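Predict fold of DEAD/DEAH box helicase; 798 aa.
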Amino acid sequence: MAKNHRSDRSPADPVSRLAPGTVLDRLASGPSRASRITHTEHLPPRAGRHAVWPDRIRPEVIAAVRAAGIEHPWAHQARAAEHALDGDSVVVATGTASGKSLAYLVPVFSALLDGSEAPNGRGSTALYLAPTKALAADQCRSVKELSQPLGHAVRPAVYDGDTPFEEREWIRQYATYVLTNPDMLHRGILPSHPRWSSFLKSLEYVVIDECHTYRGVFGSHVAQVLRRLRRLCARYGADPVFLLASATAAEPAVAARRLTGLPVVEVADDASPRGELVFALWEPPLTEMQGEKGAPVRRTATAETADLLTDLTLQGVRSVAFVRSRRGAELISVIAQERLGEIDRSLVRRVAAYRGGYLPEERRALERALHSGELLGLAATTALELGVDVSGLDAVVIAGYPGTRASLWQQAGRAGRSGQGALAVLVARDDPLDTFLVHHPEALFDQPVESTVLDPDNPYVLAPHLCAAAAELPLTDDDLELFGPQAADLLPQLEAAKLLRRRTRAWHWTRRERAADLTDIRGEGGRPVQIVESGTGRLLGTVDEGAAHASVHEGAVHLHQGRTYLVRSLDLDDSVALVEEANPPYSTVARDTTSISVLETDTEIPWGEGRLCYGSVEVTNQVVSFLRRRLITGEVLGETKLDLPPRTLRTRAVWWTVTEDQLDEARINPEILGGALHAAEHASIGMLPLFATCDRWDIGGVSIPLHPDTLLPTVFVYDGHPGGAGFAERAFHTARAWLTATRQAIASCECEAGCPSCIQSPKCGNGNDPLHKRGAVRLLTVLLRGAPAEKPPGAEGA
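Predicted 3D structure, encoded as tokens:
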């Protein structure tokens, strides 16, 4: 992580490094393989630019860095360190493997050394926040290695849910560099701040790694957790400097300011060297299978990625396949292992899966195998995207567009981390956005990465943090400015709900339970559902409560560590899903129904005769059945009804309406109106991730030929989180470009009547019925004729 010049490939690793173009040629050499590559982008190597460390850095720290093989810093590292020493909060937004870790570790180590010489007290401390446990553990290993020559001044320790209780007191009392995650800060450290008082009053630096991941509801929660941290530090007399590290992002200082609530200086000129990157766009072929309504079906990205991971392993190419879902990561590893076993049984153990939800000991074992080179191929979720030091990788396969250009480049950057050439392959899913991108490479390679979207003032986010803050220390009027302009309005509501009480000049928490338990900062809410093997009682893992209805309903297929299980029962009261091992020849996909009502329209603008609106809505959703799909081909084998309770969600949405005259102009009669609206809704949801830092699964949609609140044909797209996440707002402000790209994606698809590449949705609650492709194109054409010119970028705020 803090390594500028050296490769971490183990000398015992026999794998040879091939030129990325050679690796790609071999992948494309099979039958019909070459035609699957729609575009190849060659990013040339880049020379590095050195600088010198600021003279205020302790010479012992510079000597330790040199002992690690790093003679001179890159220019951006030295500049970031200078800002940190000046007391400026700073965000380093440079490419993967550009040495961001060293940029903040050097000033932190120097401060810890200075503090160790203080005559009284424990000296200086620093806090490191990572979005995942794996990244914190990986960083701790790097810190211990780099700081070894510095003696006891740097005492790093990981403090998270996996930390043994017998170690926690030592960490609170003696650790000078504590590595944790926002969840533990929210639930463990801040509510217990008196036990952390000596650490907090000495806190000089707060490091926030991979800060671009703090977006949407999660990012909004983390922003309020950081405000609570700043408030407690101030009470203990500390005013820490914030050092943030981000992948390349648009307006990183603006996003960092929203996250921390502080002015932040931006360092975004990447001075590190880069090896050649060959980036291929890969579209799986059409199959002879037919999907819903007889639509043509492409070979799945899962099957295609498993083939590529198998071929790369056979070539001895160290690779990671990034997969969007836990189930997909498991399935790809299983398929690759089976195919490798048919060729050479010894290769089976060289491929594995890595995802969230594993037990701590399973994660640690996989991370050790990665570092040792024991594993050649890994199918991983984004749990591995976030900075874990997987040096020496030769290739990355990305199974489906990861939702944002920032994530795409973050994942692609995992290969070639020792500065040598690397291969990245994006395998398109049968999805409107993926299909659009592999045929419009300029949308990936000629466009800047997105701005980070978060909304700390979301009342559903802010309210529980005001309660948590009041429980930590009574909340005064002077504190309210720190928490944003909505705080004062929420306090009377929290008092009416008997959560807070005003006494003299402060608000107090009134309940016996812990205020920090009011919210799950990951945005899921509710207690995680435990997945238990019925025959043995063994805990296999957990699934978020919000996803349980769709993923571990009765009859669902669940994959864990290469084994397949069937869910026999889901107990929502006790949050337990009982499973038993099985080997069904199918996967399962949940189906649901959704209705929506308008609560309040915040903004409404004319689009010709139509209207574009943004405001608050209430969504009612119910999982009603599940489909069984044949493995590999995706063929639908049958549907089973479910009896699960409905769930309601108050959130934010963008919606548009059309008039009868516009329908006449678009030649839309009542028989095809529902299908045209439904098709436009599906495609617009699929395309929104190109314009907002969201995932298709972060948003939902509803289309209705005559909505009772608008009294017109209406299409809604809403945030899938209570109170909203900022995605619908971004959609409203970029609506012209967003819906233009949506129309283009539908119109350019080669299918006759609609397919998963344009208007069919993998999560449609109505079985993709009705849909009308040509009607959607005509409808969007008429709607866009009345669209006003858009505001310049950034006019709507960060």
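The two ends are 30 Å apart (CA to CA).
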